[in-house]
Amino acid sequence: MEKILRTASFDGENDSTVQNDDENGDRPDDCGSIKTENGNSRIRTVTVIGQVEGHYLCPDNQKTTKYEHILPLIVSIEEGEDTDGLLLMLNTVGGDVEAGLAIAELIASMKKPTVSLVLGGGHSIGVPLAVAAKKSFIVPSATMTVHPVRISGTVVGAPQTYRYFEKMQNRITDFVTKHSRISKERFGELLMQTDEIATDVGTILEGEDAVKEGLIDEIGGLSQAIDALHSMIAGQNGKSDT
Questions:
Q1: C-alpha 91: how far from its chain's center?
Q2: Rounded to 5, what percent of the chain is helix, strand, coil?
Q3: Angle (nearest 5°) at CA 239 between 238 and 242
Q4: Of 33, 116, 124, 180, which is the active-site residue?
Q5: Alpha-carbon distance 35 to 117, whole Å?
Q6: Nearest to 47 by CA among 62, 60, 34
Q7: Could you confirm whether 223 is annotated as catalytic?
Q8: Catalytic residue flag (residue 147)
Q9: How far is it, in rounded angstroms, from Cα 100 to Cα 102?
Q10: pLDDT at 31
Q11: I need a surface site. Which of 29, 33, 137, 238 has the fewest CB within 10 A?
Q12: pLDDT tens profile 24-47
């Protein structure tokens, strides 16, 4: 039977209705989001890839995740009666600090079950995004880069500028340490390592190291992340997980 899938549009146009002959009735929308259903729970998958784009446009040749697309999508997942949980998949180099924190704060404040999965990389502002979910996974081959806030372009060398950077870094540190098992002291040490990155300070953590440091909960891939999400949904609904 032919199924109808309704996808959200965030570019000012009306919602589009597309036809899909696939047996599952699911296909990605323009934000890389897809909804799946296994009979017991309905999961919405959201991807954060490439550069997290904020107030300024990235070059056309860069893969980007636009926060003005992701924010309303997260709201629709939280409010939608057709979704039970969120799977957040990350392969990002980082990007705009305020945009990344905005997405992370929104995910962290969700009532519905959330699970994150780091694939490839969860660098820079990708770290807060990864820990924002209620449970986080990372594949063994993935890496996460922890480094201080940086800015490109002209910087005014005044005390006010350095205090602004310090406050911005404190916002990131507070969020990460609140939503993971790493301490502020250890996170600060990772930020200021001088022997990990040739042109910068910071630390590159592989999958197992990220778990050992307490940034990520467990090593695991897609099946582990989905199983954990189904279990969380079953627990929230008061059902036994089968």
A1: 9
A2: 35, 25, 40
A3: 155
A4: 124
A5: 16
A6: 34
A7: no
A8: yes
A9: 5
A10: 58
A11: 238
A12: 445 445 556 777 777 678 999 999
